[in-house]
């Protein structure tokens, strides 16, 4: 088993530049995992007990759409974050995710990280700030994908 250290976490784009004491705290909740192609990491509605920082490979983030099997919202790769729903109640996935090919990632135990954030407000603030940036990007990507899908299908309905 590969040991996760503050130095190894600092190599990931998402965490790069965080204070070393915060990285050391996060390392206590992390492990290195691998997934084979087509492995489903999570399903919409499932409990969010984990999140990942992708080290290599690609993961398709998708959304089940009535009448379609799925709509791929984004393909995530090295340096990306997988899993945002772990941060806020009700701690349920709102998308689905599957490995496109072999994937290696840092995997974090979400309840442990939430506990560390509660007892260390500086860590909680830093992680929340970083995750909000990812969330904004993901929301924009989802909006664009759904607008494109709507224009292709000819759906002219008004909300």
Structural write-up:
The chain is α+β, with helices and mostly antiparallel strands. The chain has a single domain (6-151), classed as Jelly Rolls, CATH 2.60.120. Helices cover 35% and strands 25% of the residues. The chain has helices spanning 6-10, 20-27, 110-119, 121-153, and strands at residues 30-35, 40-42, 50-56, 59-63, 71-76, 81-82, 96-99, 103-109. The strands form two sheets. Strands 1-8-3-6 form a four-stranded antiparallel sheet. A hairpin with a 7-residue loop joins strand 4 and strand 5 (71-76). The chain is globular. The chain starts with 5 loop residues before the first helix and ends in a 6-residue tail after the last helix.
What proportion of the residues is helical, as a percent range? 25-40%
Helical run tally: 4
How far apart the termini lie comes to 51 Å
CATH fold-type name: Jelly Rolls
Total domains: 1
Write a compact overview of the structure shown:
This protein is an alpha+beta fold. The chain has helices at residues 6-10, 20-27, 110-119, 121-153; strands at 30-35, 40-42, 50-56, 59-63, 71-76, 81-82, 96-99, 103-109.
């Amino acid at each position: 088993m590969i040991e996760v250290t503050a130095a190894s976490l600092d190599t990931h784009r998402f965490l790069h530049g965080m204070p070393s004491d915060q990285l050391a705290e996060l390392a206590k909740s992390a492990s290195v995992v691998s997934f084979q192609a087509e492995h489903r990491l999570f399903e919409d509605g499932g409990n969010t007990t984990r999140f990942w920082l992708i080290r290599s490979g690609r993961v398709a983030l998708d959304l089940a759409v009535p009448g379609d099997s799925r709509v791929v919202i984004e393909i995530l790769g090295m340096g990306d974050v997988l899993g945002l729903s772990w941060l806020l109640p009700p701690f349920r996935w709102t998308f689905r995710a599957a490995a496109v090919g072999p994937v290696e990632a840092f995997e974090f135990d979400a309840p442990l990280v939430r506990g560390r954030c509660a007892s260390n407000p500086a860590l909680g603030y830093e992680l929340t700030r970083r995750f909000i940036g990812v969330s904004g990007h993901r929301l924009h990507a989802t909006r664009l994908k759904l607008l494109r899908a709507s224009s292709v299908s000819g759906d002219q309905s008004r909300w």
